[in-house]
Amino acid sequence: MTQDIRIKMCGLTQPADVAAAAAAGADYVGFVFFGRSPRNISLRDAAMLSQTTPAAITRVALVVDATDAELDALVQAVPLDMLQLHGTEAPARAAQIRARCGLPVMKAVGIAEAGDLAQIDAYAGAVDQLLIDAKPPKGAARPGGNALAFDWSLIAGRDWALPWMLAGGLTPDNAAEAVQRTGARQLDVSSGIESAPGVKDADLMRAFVRAARG
Ligand SMILES: O=C(O)c1ccccc1N[C@@H]1O[C@H](COP(=O)(O)O)[C@@H](O)[C@H]1O
What we know:
It is a single chain. This protein is of the alpha/beta class. Helices cover 28% and strands 21% of the residues. The protein has helices spanning 15-24, 43-51, 68-77, 91-101, 175-182, 202-213, and strands spanning 6-10, 28-33, 58-63, 82-85, 105-111, 129-134, 164-166, 186-189, 194-196, 199-200. The strands form 2 sheets. The chain has an 8-stranded parallel sheet. A two-stranded antiparallel ribbon has the order 9-10. Strand 9 and strand 10 form a beta hairpin. Ligand LGQLAAA5 binds at residues 10-11, 30, 32, 34, 37, 39, 62, 64, 86, 131, 133, 142-148, 167-170, 188-192.
């Protein structure tokens, strides 16, 4: 039964993206604050997008090794429900950010081989959710949003103490298989619902939700 799969659509940059994500049935929307991303947006644009997001949808800000000053400016300017830490934040730093910002925190963990799973348990008690993503290739311009899937057999049948989402290279074509093979109950998608880097596509959003929920 996949009807209850929760879906995060990340890297939204336009009011039409938020409307399309809501219409498609997204549970979370994500706004990217990372200068080298084609999905990077200003605090001002994020505040506007956030204000147009329906109340039932969780608004997530994606940051990468943000400083305290950057985080303070972010939470002051943009109404948010959650922070996604997509850098090298250690458990202690993640816990500090959660306390400082007063928001639930989701920590992204990059997976390429079985050994990468070892770091996950250390985040219990420090964060609220985990994002199990593909590890970026060496030399990648950004730590995520690379349309790259990892070997799902590495996490098949695994569960963690915290709620978790699967990310990395998800598309309408592989979402159902991802759910079936990993047991994920939450999916996070960005590149897979785009017609070009940073350009979201409403048809792909609908197709993704249909495929993920069956
Ligand atoms: O989307 C980005 O540009 C990005 C930049 C910096 C860190 C993470 C980023 N994206 C996140 O990566 C995962 C997987 O994305 P994809 O579906 O493979 O494109 C997802 O959480 C994105 O939000």
